[in-house]
């Protein structure tokens, strides 16, 4: 057993092995180890040290005097765990429309003169993403270096893999699989440790990250089309020094997959302190780190909130400390709300997350179910009036411990206000869950939800 395993996870594994010894032991050998190989973890530390030691002014911020009194401790936590500092002089624009974010990324690629770095958990060439691929093709024709990463396993679970890779090869882009499972080539780790990050960086000037994969909003699955499902996302465009941090995450993952360390921009950082500029910090997390970086950040922020916490997570299966933080915040009298989908595309996760609703409702958390057939896939939350987090990480055990994720912590009143407008839109398109109605649901549903929850501890 891992020394860092939570007690509930350790107990679940022990019981599994005791009651189904042969299958349980095999399962543990396949998925019971929660860290990547040591060499990958060492590469993460190497890139972090390079960007910190060689970049003058990377710790400058725009508006430290406006930070909440407790906020420097959160910034220090992230720096110590993820080794990327908070930096000022940034601008951020939310992109809540699926096609709109693709159009923004496409337009940015068309401005590239040096390089384009593309990294998505899911990357598929289809009728919706074709304009983006066309922009990549135009970039390579101009002599721009186009480098692309996508998850190895997810590529086999979705259509058009051959067409997608052929298009990248034909245009002259360099593509590599993330966390490949090729045991006969010595490439093997726990199969369900996946790289779930989504980001685009253009020339180190413009960056994008958030929840959206590069694929049609139906994910091109027959069952989704039959149910009329369509994914709703939230991406953010970033301009300023924080884009270097996004690129450092890409450079690290590229280094891990290719053993090639790309150049990092280590020229001095000059920070503008005009009011419209934001302080931002990239928080990489996952099994390439020794700690659950995003888990510790999220729990701290919720505990420090003084007035309001608004959480959006499509897959909400919280670890014990996060659940306690949320329930405690509501019990302290804070306005706490959770936005989730009324329907789900992953049955086990969908039923597991429903098992948490009763405890949350009893504590006073407002739960909003985004109306079907839309799947609310955005991943973000806001604290009080001026702190926000947006990225690829769900608030679930998988994103906290098993997936490689990326989040951006932002301090800025205007940005948080724009996030509140997005949350207002969610609320207008949701049904608020009532405790009495929830308790009256059929017994079979309650049993199914509880059984699904038991599996969430096997990590």
Enumerate the strands of the largest sheet in spatial order, edge to edge or round the barrel. 4-3-2-5-6-8-1-9-16-15-14-10-11-12-17
Helices and strands: which structural class? Answer: alpha/beta
Tell me the number of strands.
17
Beta-strand proportion: 15-25%
Instruction: Please give the largest β-sheet.
Output: 15 strands, mixed
Shape: globular
Structure annotation, total helices: 18
Describe what this molecule looks like in 3D.
The protein has 18 helices and 17 strands. With 459 residues, the chain is α/β, with parallel strands linked by helices. Strand 2, helix 6 and strand 3 form a beta-alpha-beta unit. Helix 3 runs antiparallel to helix 10 and helix 4 runs antiparallel to helix 11. The chain starts with 6 loop residues before the first helix and ends with a helix.
Summarize the structure.
With 459 residues, the chain is α/β, with parallel strands linked by helices.
Task: Based on the model shown, name its key terms.
15-stranded mixed sheet; 459 residues; 17 strands; disordered N terminus; alpha/beta
Itemize the secondary structure elements and their pairings.
Blueprint: H1 7-19, H2 21-31, H3 38-53, H4 71-82, E1 87-95, H5 98-109, E2 115-120, H6 130-141, E3 145-151, H7 152-157, H8 161-171, E4 174-178, E5 198-202, E6 206-210, H9 222-227, E7 230-232, E8 235-239, H10 242-258, E9 278-285, H11 293-304, E10 308-312, H12 320-331, E11 335-341, H13 347-354, H14 357-363, E12 366-370, E13 374-376, E14 380-383, E15 387-391, H15 397-402, E16 405-411, H16 413-428, E17 430-432, H17 435-439, H18 443-455
Parallel strand pairs: 2-3, 3-4, 7-13, 10-11, 11-12
Antiparallel strand pairs: 1-8, 1-9, 2-5, 5-6, 6-8, 9-16, 10-14, 12-17, 14-15, 15-16
């Amino acid at each position: 057993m891992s020394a860092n395993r939570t007690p509930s996870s350790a107990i679940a594994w022990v019981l599994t092995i005791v009651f189904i010894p042969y299958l349980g032991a095999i399962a543990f050998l396949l998925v019971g180890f929660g860290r990547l190989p040591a060499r990958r973890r060492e590469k993460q530390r190497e890139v972090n040290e390079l960007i910190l030691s060689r970049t003058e002014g990377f710790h400058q911020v725009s508006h430290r005097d406006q930070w909440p009194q407790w906020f420097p401790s959160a910034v220090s936590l992230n720096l110590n765990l993820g080794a990327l500092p908070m930096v000022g002089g940034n601008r951020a624009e939310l992109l809540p429309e699926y096609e709109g974010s693709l159009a923004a990324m496409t337009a940015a690629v068309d401005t590239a003169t040096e390089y384009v770095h593309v990294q998505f958990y899911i990357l598929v060439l289809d009728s919706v993403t074709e304009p983006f691929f066309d922009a990549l093709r135009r970039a390579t024709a101009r002599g721009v270096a186009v480098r692309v990463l996508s998850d190895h396993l997810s590529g086999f679970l979705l259509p058009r893999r051959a067409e997608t890779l052929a298009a990248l090869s034909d245009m002259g882009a360099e593509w590599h699989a993330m966390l490949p499972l090729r045991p006969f080539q010595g490439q093997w780790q726990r199969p369900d440790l996946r790289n779930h990050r989504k980001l685009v960086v253009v020339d180190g000037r413009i960056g994008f990250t958030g929840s959206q994969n590069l694929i049609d909003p139906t994910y091109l699955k027959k069952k989704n089309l039959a149910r009329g499902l369509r994914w709703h996302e939230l991406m953010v465009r970033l301009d300023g020094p924080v884009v270097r941090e996004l690129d450092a995450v890409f450079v690290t993952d590229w280094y891990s997959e290719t053993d090639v360390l790309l150049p990092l921009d280590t020229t001095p950082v000059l920070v503008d302190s005009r009011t419209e500029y934001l302080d931002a910090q990239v928080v990489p997390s996952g099994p390439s780190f020794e700690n659950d970086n995003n888990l510790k950040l999220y729990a701290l922020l919720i505990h420090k909130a003084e007035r309001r916490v608004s959480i959006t997570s499509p897959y909400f299966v919280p670890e014990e400390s996060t659940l306690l933080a949320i329930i405690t915040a509501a019990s302290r009298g804070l306005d706490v709300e959770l936005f989730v989908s009324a329907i789900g595309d992953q049955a086990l996760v969908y039923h597991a997350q429903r098992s948490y609703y009763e405890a949350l409702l009893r504590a006073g958390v407002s739960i909003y179910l985004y109306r079907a057939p839309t799947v609310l896939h955005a991943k973000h939350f806001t604290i009080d009036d001026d702190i926000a987090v947006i990225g690829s990480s769900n608030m679930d055990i998988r994103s906290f411990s098993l997936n490689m994720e990326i989040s951006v912590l932002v301090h800025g009143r205007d940005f948080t206000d724009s996030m509140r407008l997005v949350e207002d839109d969610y609320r207008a398109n949701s049904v608020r869950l009532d405790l009495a109605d929830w308790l009256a649901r059929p017994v079979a549903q309650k049993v199914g939800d509880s059984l699904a929850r038991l599996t969430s501890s096997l990590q």
